[in-house]
Design goal:
The chain has about 170 residues and is mostly helical. It contains 8 helices and 2 strands.
Length: about 170
């Protein structure tokens, strides 16, 4: 289990976990946080914890995932109230041409946007279509526009492995 960045897996397998969830309260006081830490310092695990905590689709799992943690005993009003898109840029291939890297980037982003819209069909009512061949910014604008127009829960964006291109 050492080195796992999958929070759900750690909880389900009763893995060892140092509870840093009290920082979620503090994090909510900061707009647009960025975590710059060296490799192997838990950034990906932290992203997964935030995804589980804020994801509207994981309300039913809250007690199981967070019941024994600080934030489970002291939840914030933002608990499980967002659509969450988790972009993991480690899957973007930066080794080709600029055009190939851009294509890989768009595919990575569009896949996650398509997943969010698909998992939230009741909210999006099949009114938002993700064109997987389009630029990710076009699809993101469509999702955000629909969310704003119909006053849906906000979109929480998590970007992991942002330095993959360096």
């Amino acid at each position: 289990m050492y080195g796992s960045a999958n929070y759900v897996e750690i909880v389900e397998n009763n893995g060892y976990f140092v509870d840093k969830t009290a920082y979620i309260e503090k994090l909510e006081q900061v707009s647009n946080p960025v975590f710059l830490r060296p490799q192997r310092f838990g950034k990906s695990l932290w992203c997964r914890i935030l995804e589980c905590y804020y994801n509207i689709n994981q309300q039913a799992d809250f007690e199981r995932l967070f019941g024994q943690t600080y934030i489970g005993r002291h939840p914030t009003p933002h608990r499980n109230t967002y659509f969450v898109v988790h972009w993991d840029f480690s899957t973007v291939d930066p080794s080709g041409t600029l055009a190939q890297t851009e294509e890989s980037f768009n595919a990575t982003c569009n896949f996650e946007l398509k997943t969010i819209v698909g998992k939230n069909k009741a909210w999006f009512k099949e009114q938002v279509t993700i064109d997987v061949k389009a630029q990710a910014s076009v699809n993101l604008k469509a999702v955000l526009g629909y969310i704003r127009e119909y006053d849906l829960p906000p979109l929480y964006i998590i970007i992991d492995e942002y330095d993959n291109f360096a």
